[in-house]
């Protein structure tokens, strides 16, 4: 099992957003960033970050969305994630009310496609 850690620094969230690699589903957006070798500590770890804005609702609703997304990552995305990458998951309004099976299906689809090479 690869080492997993959490993204906590704002600059890491911003660099994932600037990398340009993302995949959009109905309930969330996944942004991907490959970490450079210049990042000495934890280069091999898989890192996840979650963003839930205040537009999603009050603190109870935002916490529920984060719990649902974290559990979906544990069940589906962790086996599909690759070492040395940062993944930022940004929630959308559908993430609160959609059935958990739909959230898992979206997560599996997004992580199976995020590393796919696009043809020019």
Reported for the largest beta sheet, the result is: 5 strands, mixed
Separate helix tally: 4
Helix content: 40-55%
Helix/strand order, N-terminal first:
EHEEEHEHH
Q: pLDDT average, as an integer?
A: 88
> What spatial form do the alpha-carbon principal axes imply?
globular
Rounded Rg: 14 Å
Q: What kind of oligomer do you see?
A: single chain
Strand order of the largest sheet: 1-4-5-3-2
DSSP, total strands: 5
- Counted up, domains total 1
Beta-strand residue percentage? 15-25%
User: How does CATH name the architecture?
Assistant: 2-Layer Sandwich
Distance between the termini: 34 Å
Task: Please mark out the parts with pLDDT under 50 across 5 or more consecutive residues, or reply none.
Answer: none
Strand pairing plus helix content: what structural class? alpha/beta
Task: Classify the fold: give the CATH topology.
Answer: Ribosomal Protein S5, domain 2
The first-level CATH class is given as Alpha Beta
């Amino acid at each position: 099992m690869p080492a997993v850690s959490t993204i906590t620094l704002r600059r890491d969230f911003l660099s994932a957003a600037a990398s340009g690699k993302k995949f959009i589903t109905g309930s969330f957006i996944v942004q991907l960033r490959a970490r450079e070798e210049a990042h000495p500590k934890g280069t091999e770890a898989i890192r996840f970050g979650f963003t839930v804005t205040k537009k999603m609702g009050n603190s109870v609703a935002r916490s529920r969305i984060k719990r649902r997304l974290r559990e979906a990552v544990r069940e589906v995305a962790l086996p599909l994630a690759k070492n040395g990458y940062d993944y930022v998951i940004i929630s959308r309004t559908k993430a609160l009310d959609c059935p958990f099976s739909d959230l898992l299906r979206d997560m599996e689809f997004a992580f199976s496609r995020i590393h796919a090479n696009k043809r020019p």
